[in-house]
Amino acid sequence: MRRAPRNAVLAFAARIMRLVPHRDSDSDGLTTIRDTRHHAHRAGFAGLGSGPLDPHTERSGTPNPPRLMLLVCGKAAVTGGECLLTDGQALHSDLFTGDREAGVALARPRTAFFGAGDGHATQVFTVHHDMRVSVRLRFDGLARWNPTVQPYLPQLRAAAVRHQVRLTLAPGQGYLLDNERWLHARRAFTGDRLFWRALGQPLFPMPRGFAPAPASVRTPMLSEAG
After folding, report:
1. How many whole angstroms separate alpha carbon 39 and alpha carbon 140?
2. pLDDT tens figures, 171-214
3. CA-to-CA distance for 12 and 19, rounded, in angstroms?
4. I need a labelling partner for 157 at 20 to 30 A (CA). Which of 1, 4, 99, 170 fits?
């Protein structure tokens, strides 16, 4: 499919999720992602500029971020703009096997605060009662950290970048991800790049997060708060 009209993206999203409206979404629930030339330097609005985006979880500053994110290309950038995805399971395994102390610290409850004044106290890795793990992350100006995890942020950022997979999307192409498992980012771009994004809760059963990789199964049971 070379073209993906907005109404086709919306129709597909409605088949798989209950759309969750938010600050940047349009009246139909979709968000138009393009360089507005007005938002780039405001914390939390970098997606509406042309610069790079760090690996992050959508709506990380809310108590219950949407489980699904659909992103579809309407118009590709002239240069750059590739999507970058990091599997949270790979990130988790990297930290717990390469520097277990970092992984344990980043799973301690309420060691991060994401969002503005009405944001949410949480942690990077949330371990659920069935031992599955969810990841939640952002690195921008709306991320504040407990001093106990500050020393581990360079390892966290390096691992998140190390495991990135690059996607170069043409018009009509896109991806659907589990927002509790995958982090996404973007390279800087030039040109009138246009994407549509849908956020929502699945209309089908989904287990929480991911099962830890075998090498990191000793992840401590710490908290479901987050």
Report:
1. 14
2. 999 999 999 999 999 999 999 999 999 999 999 999 999 999 88
3. 11
4. 170
Q: What is the C-alpha separation between 92 and 133, in angstroms, rounded? A: 9
What's the residue count for the chain? 226
Q: Is-contact 131 212, C-beta < 8 A?
A: yes
Of 77, 57, 82, the closest CA to residue 166 belongs to 82
Tell me the backbone φ, ψ of residue 121, rounded to 5 degrees.
Answer: -80, 130
Is residue 105 within 8 A of residue 111, CB to CB? The reply is: yes
Q: Supply 49's token pair.
A: 């500029």
Minimal CA–CA distance to 3: which of 65, 62, 75, 60?
Answer: 75
Q: How far apart are CA 85 and CA 184, in angstroms?
A: 5
Between CA 60 and CA 50 the distance in angstroms is: 21
CA 226/CA 218 separation, integer angstroms: 20
**Nearest residue to 44 via CA among 178, 127, 185, 139:** 139
pLDDT at 220: 55
CATH class of 6-216: alpha beta
pLDDT in tens, 9-19: 999 999 999 99
Strand, coil or helix: 186: strand
| Closest C-alpha to 83, from 193, 179, 167 | 167
- 137-157 per-position pLDDT tens digit: 999 999 999 999 999 999 999
